[in-house]
Amino acid sequence: MNPKSLLKNEDAVSITIGFILMLSITVLVFSATILSFYTLTQHSQQAAMRESFDILGSGFAARVNSMDTLVNITKSNGGAVNKLEYDFSIPASIANEEYGINITRERIFLDAENDAKAWIPFNSSYNITEQIYSNAQDYTLSYDNKTNSMIIEQQ
């Protein structure tokens, strides 16, 4: 075998380049597929959390509004409300994520660590400014006549 003819033979080069190209294209397609499924999963989780936040926040707003209405009706008819309490629970996590609830007089803000956020508008006649974290599940919402406000306490 002549060493000069070996250097001029390019048959193996095209097979090697073809193999490397096919391998790299396969790796790129596989990586893109995995990333797209991961992104789709994250988006679905955030969408599910926002829907759960809407349900949780709307239910809480309904509870606050019913207490507000009871106190206002009682006071408008000459009655007195010394203390009114309502026990409620929130789930420890939604879609395996912890979350927080920030309550103001006009809105309920819910947000999680994965950037899922929601807010629910409502209107209360009484001051209510609290922060609730999902790691504690049982709470008491109460009206206090002395401070003329609603208070949320962990049980």
Please characterize this protein's 3D structure.
The protein has 155 residues and is of the alpha+beta class. The chain has helices spanning 3-8, 11-76; strands at residues 83-89, 99-103, 107-112, 117-121, 130-133, 138-144, 149-154. It has a four-stranded antiparallel β-sheet with strand order 4-3-2-5, covered by helices on one side. A three-stranded antiparallel β-sheet has the order 1-6-7, with helices on one face. The longest helix has 66 residues, at 11-76. It is rod-shaped. The termini are far apart. The model has no long low-confidence stretch (mean pLDDT 84).
Secondary-structure blueprint:
Layout lengths: L2 H6 L2 H66 L6 E7 L9 E5 L3 E6 L4 E5 L8 E4 L4 E7 L4 E6 L1
Antiparallel strand pairs: 1-6, 2-3, 2-5, 3-4, 6-7
In the predicted model, the low-confidence regions spanning at least 5 consecutive residues are none
Tally of separate helices: 2
Mean pLDDT: 84
What is the helix/strand order? Answer: HHEEEEEEE
Which radius of gyration do the C-alpha atoms yield? 30 Å
Into which percent range does the helicity of residues fall?
A: 40-55%
| Number of beta strands | 7
Structural class: alpha+beta
